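In this supplementary section we document a worked example of the pipeline. Step one takes a protein sequence of length 715 as its only input; no multiple sequence alignment statistics are reported here. Step two produces a three-dimensional model, which step three serialises into structure tokens for compact storage. The input and output of this example are shown verbatim.
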Amino acid sequence: MSTQEKKRTRIYSKAEIKKASSVDIVSYIQAHGSGELEGHGRYLKYHVNGHDSLIIDQKKNYFFHNSIGRGDNILSLLTQYEGYSFQNAVGFLLGEELEAHKGYDESEENKGPYQHAYEAADSTEKVRHYLENIRGIDREIITYLIDNDYLIQDKKYGSAVLNWKQYGLAQEKIVGATSIVTRAKITDSPRKYIGENSEKHYGFNITLGEPKAIYFFEAGIDLLSYWSLHKDLTDCRLVCLEGRKDKTVVKMIQEGYQTFETLPKNGIFYGVDNDPAGQSFYSKCDKQINIKQEVGTDTLIINRALNPYDHQVQQEIFDQVNQAATLHEVDPNLLLTIQKIENNLTDTNKVSNDWKAYGYFAKTPKSHAKEETIDLTDALDTLCKDINEKHVTLESIADLYLENKPSGLEQQLLQSRANELYSMYANDQMEIVHEVSKDWNDFLKEQRSEGLITEHTPLVIQEPVDQVNRRSINQFKYYLTDKKDNIEMKALLVDQYSINPKIVDALYKKGLMRQDIHDRIVFLWNDQGRVTGGQLRGTFQSKEFGKLGYEQKIMDFSAEGYGFNVSLGTPQSIHFFQSPEDLLAYWTLNIDQVKDTILFALSDGQAEHVVDNINNKLQAGHKIQQVTFCVGNNKQALELLDKVAQLKTFNQQTLSLQTELGSDIAFQSERPKIGINWINELIAKKDRDREVNAVKQKQQRTAAPLKVEQHYARS
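The serialised model returned by step three reads:
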């Protein structure tokens, strides 16, 4: 069979995806958008498919959906709101002609980012017992999964929760979960539940080394069963489809190409169930998913079926086939081949292929059709008569299905599968059994019952290749070594600057402030629970940093324009400062008054970043109504205020910022009365308080009545 006729599945490179992502959102909407765009200036509002809170930021070429608190680039707009698949979205933006756009499917929409709802119990006893003793999973694999947070025991129900780690890497975030009921008998099928709002077209997965091959399974138990039987697997990715979803197959291959910079050149393996649905799914993928091994070559990556029971035939069906073959003088192996293709040698009407080969045993290709038991004797009689009348042979099996109008490719795939099956049956490579088994867990338990001890084989764990980390090279990571104490931090902030020690202790305990081994204070930048940067402040003066002064530095790969910030209560306002030290000084001066606000230290003097940070907090769900600039009495502060006043979105008359991400936000300023900045203000206030206290004490001593010793003469 020539693979040239197969429709190739397009997998895009990082450069192509980046190019597609850079297409102007507004230009796309004006030319192709299905919704209505309104407004002017930097922020526009886009009404699409019933959503009235999509904001387009023309400067960042970015959109944000207020009501669910998420946003992204034009690719996400097309896939989440315009109804494109990822492949079609990239192809469309690159100007390629792909399958027709199918419109928006609201049922496919995520309702927001995944929120992990499972709390890990202190014990893993139930999970270990269930997986090892009921399902037969290898003990070493179970331990590895627990140690690396792929597997937990749910505290509430005692279920086994498989965490879906992004890219299949232990250190990455959890984007979904599968909860498997552990209160089950060995004869029960695993009952599972998918965590609410888990990532679409994803599933539990593990990456071992460089993924040059990829293995797909319908369920996590099957994946772990196969791995238990093949503990030496390397350079591959194991993926649970959480059902049968061809979109998951394409998404995982595309993600692997983007993340690991490699394609599964050694094969795409489908360890699906040995039932009509599993067989049909594989044939669909084999027909539709055809990827080049390398750019510039026509050689395709091979799709391979992977089920240990594909050769089994049920005794009852085998006997009926042979009876019909004898009665009608037809080759029994040809009958077995045709029935296997149509309904996987079962007694139901479910189709087990995607080539339009049905009509004798399977009556409808519709997956949602009601499953019914067929009259196998009648079906075999009808088939035998047609074989004799049409003179059908192995080489002309497709002639039986011409009325269903299979394509040329479908006929080729059908013929290839027929040749494979017929060869197996004719060479007595089939196994006649009382009941046909289904999946890899069945196979593992069967092998265990025959004496297999997988624990005798060491588990091979390959660390991810260097390419894995390339995607995050420009993301902030905390790279300093902390000191065990914070003596120098307190000496500078509390003793020298008079910062309230309770504030310093609280921020130190929360990890927002640290002291490294070089005695520098580290102010970490918190963004919705994620550290996105930080800045250093030396605790001793030196000429090494120019003039006599303290070392000050923004840490490498910190988020541009962000800064050190602290949220107090339920924030309804933001107080902006020029440095973390000023923030702490102002907080100390107003510790009883500062409530329900965000104290934010800007990392630079750009007015645009002020707006970006306000929008960031609005997007996080804070109802910001007022912004106060608590800047100093210096040149840089005046320049910042002037830049903000010159923004197009700033209303000079009402002194407010006009933004579509919230109501108009009032602006005001509060500046030190005595010092040039808030540190000077705090120190001056402390000095003044000391002087006032000294005067009061002196006055009290002066005003105190003299104690005159009285002597009384004896009378």
